[in-house]
User: Fold this.
Amino acid sequence: MKKISLFVRKSVNDQFDELEENEPKNLKRHLKAGSLTAVGIGAIIGAGIFVISGQAAALYAGPGIFISFLIAGFVCVLAALCYAELASMIALPGGAYSYSYVALGELPAWVVGWAMSAQYLFLGSTVSVGWSGYFASFLQDFGITISQKFMNAPFMYSSSAGWQWSGSVLNIPAMCLILLLGLLVTIGIKAANYINFIMVIIKLSTVALFVAVGVFNLHPENWFPFIPANTGVFGEFGWSGIFRGAGLVFFAYIGFDAVSTLGKDAIDPQKNLPKGILSSLAICSIAYVVVALVLTGVVNYSLLNVPDPMAVALNAMGPNFFWIAFMIKLAILAGLTSVVMINLLTQSRIFYAMGRDGLISHAFGDVHARLRSPVFSSVVTTIIMCVVSGLFPINILGEFCSMTTLLIFAIACLGVLVLRKTHPEVKRTFRVPLVPYIPILGILTCVGQMCLFPVVTWIQLSLWLLVGFGIYFGFSIKNSRLRKHLTKIHAKKDTGALY
Assistant:
């Protein structure tokens, strides 16, 4: 019998039939272009600007974090263009995982799906930790203090001392937030979509209010030197710090790709997914650049290495801005909440797609008959994210998440090049301009950004992928639906695969 390759691919021609297969048992389609744009904004604007921006400025880039945002945004534009083309021709759930299955084959698809699981599980956990910091700041305004033992992770990491015990027990607020939102996502996407839309409006209003108040409280001396001198260590200020900062604030742009995972939740996905991807990224990029300038202009960058840098800036404006600060902190909590919810939703859809393909347990691909939601997938996602958010600090979570995302983006750019060569005839409602230059530049910039991360982040990625390979060769390769289908065909006659 003919041996099935590790790079066996799904057929582009048959994937639209799969979309409609057993439609009553599939997810229900609710999302139009506006809702998908809101999902993208809901996923993008969050811990990146409200949390990570301050740490990147304080530790790496100083006021030059503005340039870091421009560099990271440029990398994301290249990747977003590639995602838009892939989404316009492959409207399957799972985003880059499904695109890789069609373009590159099963093993690369598994690598992408496994990396995406790290991306969204750790992204949601990171944001929940940031939410916990803002929640504590919010309560302190009313004289309520939560013990630090129940506000921080029991583990901490620094490049000089390595892993240490922090003395804390668990980050209880972060865990409670994920449990509540996990329940909402399990109920179904329609309810989650309404909540997200409201929170996106609040979030954009918050950013606008912070900028409007901040421009009248700027201290230009905080911008000088705009690029602080390098300390003698690569990545600590200077231009190397600008690029290291770009690698970290790249985290702030993660989320537009979440739109691509909703291929079976979207109405007319071939048209609406590309619109949602590009529109959400454009809106958020403008907001980020402006906020970065205002944040470092209001308060000295050295004071921003905290979980709630925007709260620090608001408090620095003085007691006269208490109520504005109160409103903005409340809105930030709402904004971070929407990010966690979108990541729970997105990861449940990735597990759903992989479960349908048999690469993980088929239970992940089951849809509840009444809720029309992957309940098992949502519950498992919630439990994992809850545990991670309670145990690990925000700096480790953020850098690892950015690393996995860059890997996924590079593979998505490669997918565009491959499909342009192997399937030029397939209809694309959106096409990346200047192919092959933009996809190649996307791959190079993503890999270049990955090289700027510290060794510990590379070790984390390597260990995660090793675990993934163990699962694939121990379980997935034996239970793959595509492999079982091709095995049946080969058992009848020794012919080439249809895939």
Observations:
- The domain at 28-453 is CATH 1.20.1740.10 (Amino acid/polyamine transporter I).
